[in-house]
Amino acid sequence: MRFTFPWIAYATPLVVILVAWAQSLLIRRRRQRFLVFTGGLARPWADPGYVRRRVQTSRIIFLATVACLLFSAAGPLVFKPTNQSELRGIPYMIALDASRSMLAGDVRPNRWSAATNSLDRFLADSRGDRVGLITFSGVAYLNAPLTFDMVALRMMLRYLDPNAIEDPGSSLASAIDRAARYFSTNQISPRLLVVISDGEDLAGNPLDVARRLHNQMGLKICTVGVGTAAGSRVPLNRPGSAAKNSFGQEVVSRLNEGNLQRLAAMTRGRYYRLGEHGEGLDALRRDVLSPMAESAARADLRQYRPLFQVPLVLGLAGILAFIWIGADRHQRPRPIGSIAPLPQSS
Known about the structure:
Layout: E1 2-3, H1 6-38, H2 52-73, E2 76-79, H3 83-87, E3 91-97, H4 111-124, E4 130-136, E5 140-147, H5 150-159, H6 172-185, E6 192-197, H7 206-217, E7 220-225, E8 232-233, E9 252-253, H8 257-266, E10 271-273, H9 279-298, E11 304-306, H10 309-325
Helix pairs in contact: 1-2, 2-10, 4-5, 6-7, 7-8
């Protein structure tokens, strides 16, 4: 709940306390003046005969009425989801690892196909989000700026191929820096980057870059790991061949979960495993994207409806109840002292 005039809502408890104090002070002064006028409660005519229960109820209703009227004056607003708010999304960039290690076959059919297929289903279910796409290997490229067109993004995924990328290596730092520059140049907020990768980094220090950009511009990074800890060899273009290092040994690529977890934790993001059917992306939507979209919708006053009528009606009902109780008009029955008979004249 929000308020049109929040300062009135914040001041309401203080005002009610001051009114209660003033009410008690007024009752005390009236009692003192009454005792001075009557000469003390010991005299039978000094008791005003007020009904104690009515007096207490009247005081409580009076204070509640003041609180309700002030609450109504503050202009309470209640969030009411609509079709527009349900379609409201958030802007975020996806950095997809397109290095040759993504062709490893430790997940079926390989890391690249598993990631792109899951991402395709994820984008198909996106509603209202503005999504941009970055692919990176040794260098990061902006393939698509933020867009609502999920069909175009899904079509682009079909034409991406790690075999066609000539930049060797894998640089998470370049992807993070490219996304940060895009957010800063276009003045986009919030600044969320989703990195889909096997976690291998062969150039730069992504943790230092992520820490610096998080502190400078509030960049938040969520990571999705693709692959297994056992890993698999990295294939070459020729069927049956595998990449080899300088010692002639076949290169085995393994999922570096620690790297991805540290990267997410350093920017207050979260890490997920991709899973066989893209469960990690579904969890990302549930845990991160949906709450951020709801928060963005709640920040828009157009998604709120006025609710001042409810406390106003309660306040008017309190006034009527205060008048009906009439603590000053009702008195309890009191015994009347007997009057001595006058002596009869003889």
